[in-house]
Amino acid sequence: MRLDIISIFPEYFAPLDVSLIGKARERGTLDVRVHQLRDWAHDVHKTVDDTPYGGGPGMVMKPEVWGEAIDAVIGDGTPRMIVPTPSGRPFTQELAQELAEEPWLLFACGRYEGIDSRVVAEYATRLRVDEVGIGDYVLAGGEVAVLVMVEAIGRLLPGVLGNAQSAVDDSFAPGSMRNLVEGPVYTKPPVWRGHEVPAVLLSGHHGKIARWRRDEALRRTVANRPELAAALDVDALDKHDRKLLEELSFRVGPEDVAN
Ligand code: 6GU
């Protein structure tokens, strides 16, 4: 997969040299190219922003600089373009999976109040363009969001994870224990500072271990992600699951209307 990133802070992407993603780059599974947007600004100050039409706070990134940068980076190619912004569609495991199947991605990182909207309008006539956000909070710029997305996408590429099952078991992976987060994990020693590893995990009884793991996943989902638990498919739950949810006084389904 080829990955181009345009930003006024290329230094933000140093972490892509390490760990799984760094190894994938060394092997050639990932071809990451980070570009300095200011290379396409022509005035002495390398200006990339200007005041917003209509007034208001902050600055907006200029379309001409972005246009030249994107044209130079893509040539006559047609990458899928991602514009990180808190107002974008949510980045989910499903979108990560979809993007992992693309041969070429281009990330256009905005700072300040964002990029002049005509840039997306222009490239949407030629490329598939998505504005994407990573959660309901506001970052100072798209760079960290792109690191998040690249890591989520990169680990799904063939051969990037040592153990292919790791991605299959992910909390939000399609078809896993869908809509359940993962439960707790333990390693040696069996007792640490008086805390014991749950005995069932040492029992060697695979059926009981699987059941226990599912129970713990359900408990944690109810505690930490009640909106996911509420959306569980009742028909996909067995008697044991239902009993556990009953014990937790948790009702699957939409919240009752106030009465
Ligand atoms: Cl993609 N960018 C910024 N600046 N803030 C965000 C975001 C992106 N996603 C969530 N918050």
From TrEMBL:
Enzyme kind, highest EC tier: transferase
Positions in coiled-coil regions: none
Cell compartments where the protein resides: Cytoplasm
Location of the tRNA methyltransferase TRMD/TRM10-type domain: 1-229
Binding site for S-adenosyl-L-methionine: G110, I134, G135, D136, Y137, V138, L139
Alphabetized UniProt keyword annotations: Cytoplasm, Methyltransferase, S-adenosyl-L-methionine, Transferase, tRNA processing
Organism domain of life: Bacteria
Protein role: Specifically methylates guanosine-37 in various tRNAs.
PANTHER family listed in its UniProt record: TRNA (GUANINE-N(1)-)-METHYLTRANSFERASE (PTHR46417:SF1)
Protein name per the record: tRNA (guanine-N(1)-)-methyltransferase
Organism field: Nonomuraea jiangxiensis
Lineage: Bacteria, Bacillati, Actinomycetota, Actinomycetes, Streptosporangiales
